[in-house]
Specification:
The chain is mainly α. Among the domains are: about 140 residues; about 110 residues, no CATH class. It has 17 helices and two strands. Helix 11 runs parallel beside helix 14. The longest helix is centred in the first third of the chain and has 57 residues. The chain is elongated, with a radius of gyration of 27 Å. The relative contact order is 0.10.
């Protein structure tokens, strides 16, 4: 390989790390902060006036003011997050520009050499040109890495602010036995709270089978749940049933159930986000037919509450030690396909529920472990004695892109991932990953820090 070939090889590899297409900046998030400020104004307009006096009015006013203040802080954090996304996009754009400038400089220097030089003299003249070009390329890549690490550090700071707001409670949860809970809305002569557990069990069963009316009732119950707040008896019953009845379903069965739900398909993803949020506490339901939730046995949200098939797929079950599994190379591709399916389901849910959840953390962990997997085409063939790597590589890169575009919406989970002990390795592996060219998406390299 000549000195000039060495430069172009180095340049091409560096250029691939910066992806293709226009990087996504933070402009798309401007509307979010505006909506949060609108919500702040709406809450402030609900402050008690002179017609309501006394200690109750004062307590409500204080809580109302605090609530409005939280939305104002969220809007500010949203702007800061958007700014960091723009910073990341600028790092990519500037890196590409510097690489293009380096290539132009090398091309010009080469073209300026006298045409009458012998082959030996020409090669000798190319060495300092190639050396300077490679130095510039290395500096560009190193500076981009350094700048991305700085962005990651600022995300860590924002995480603490998000956590503080996430843990804040505005008012006590609903109390069992209030006027609404004791009403007989179904006319059966018994208070509704006596029936809510059975109704939740039947509605969830019907919803997962495609019943739209039942799905609407499930959606209504889940939509009122706010992490950090006590769940009502109804909310706890419905979330508990969603956790128990999905527990033994395969990834494909979960996807089929989601497709049957039509406009209510978000209840699958939303239930996963809620049941994996450690700020959500709900009663346990045994995983057996006709079981009802038990308010005397409370569960705390976490990734262990997710359906077993989802946990296994995101945990790369039996794949973390591929030498013991060399006779089943297709399992890698199947795992990646399942993760893409999971990410697709998550993409249809309410992104507002993505606040450092166990689901999003598990998805990011999967991408970290997959990027760090030593499996390469030559190693694949040597160990398995079989083909199939291109199929796996395509499924893997599709899944990575899908995870970054969905779990990447969870700013707190991303910050936790990047600030962990393996955060630097994650960024290094992502930077060095060679994507299949036809699968590279302009947002793939930056989506994970949205």
């Amino acid at each position: 390989m000549s000195a000039l070939d060495g430069f172009y090889s180095t340049w091409n590899k560096a250029r691939e790390t910066f992806g293709v297409g226009t990087p996504t900046d933070g402009s798309q998030y401007d509307g979010s902060s505006s909506k949060l400020l609108q919500m702040k104004s709406t809450i402030e307009s609900a402050a008690p006036d002179d017609r309501w006096q006394g200690s109750g009015s004062q307590a409500y006013a204080a809580a109302n003011k605090e609530h409005a203040g939280v939305y104002e802080k969220l809007a500010d954090l949203d702007k800061k997050m958007a700014a960091e996304v723009t910073n990341a996009a600028n790092i990519v754009t500037n890196g590409r520009t510097r690489l293009d400038n380096t290539k132009s400089w090398v091309d010009s220097a080469v073209n300026s050499l006298p045409s009458g030089l012998s082959s030996q003299a020409r090669e000798k003249s190319l060495i300092p040109i190639a050396k300077e070009g490679i130095t510039q390329v290395n500096n560009t890549v190193q500076n981009a890495n350094k700048d991305m690490n700085t962005v990651a550090g600022r995300f860590t700071g924002l995480k603490g602010e998000f956590d503080a707001l996430t843990n804040q409670k505005f008012a006590p949860g609903e109390k069992k036995g209030d006027a609404e809970g004791l009403a007989d809305r179904d006319g059966d002569g018994k208070p509704d709270e006596d029936d809510v557990h059975k109704r939740a069990e039947q509605d969830v069963q019907d919803a997962l089978s495609g019943n739209q009316e039942a799905a609407a009732r499930v959606e209504d119950a889940l939509s009122g749940i706010k992490p950090g707040h006590q769940l009502s008896e109804q909310q706890g019953a419905y979330l508990s049933q969603m956790q128990a009845q999905q527990h033994g379903m395969s990834v494909d069965e979960l996807k089929a159930a989601e497709e049957r739900l039509g406009e209510h398909r978000g209840i699958i993803s939303n239930s996963w986000q809620l049941m994996s949020n450690d700020d959500v506490h709900f009663p346990k339901t045994e995983t057996k037919v006709d079981a009802l939730d038990n308010s005397q046995n409370m569960e705390t949200g976490g990734r262990s509450q997710l359906p077993e098939s989802v946990q296994q797929a995101l945990g790369r079950k039996d794949l973390n030690s591929f030498l013991s599994n060399f006779d089943k190379p297709s399992e890698y591709a199947e795992n990646a396909r399942q993760v893409s399916t999971i990410a697709d389901i998550v993409s249809h849910g309410n992104s507002e529920l993505q606040r450092d959840t166990g689901l999003d953390a598990a998805m990011l962990d999967w991408s970290r472990d997959t990027l760090h997997d030593p499996l390469r085409p030559s190693l694949w063939s040597a160990v398995t004695g079989a083909g199939g790597f291109p199929e796996y590589a395509e499924a893997r890169d599709n899944a990575l892109a899908d995870v970054f575009n969905t779990a990447g919406r969870d700013h707190a989970a991303v910050s936790s991932e990047l600030s962990s002990e393996t955060g630097q390795q994650f960024l290094t592996d992502l930077h060095n990953h060679v994507w299949l060219m036809h699968l590279i998406r302009s947002t793939t390299r930056t989506a994970f820090i949205r």
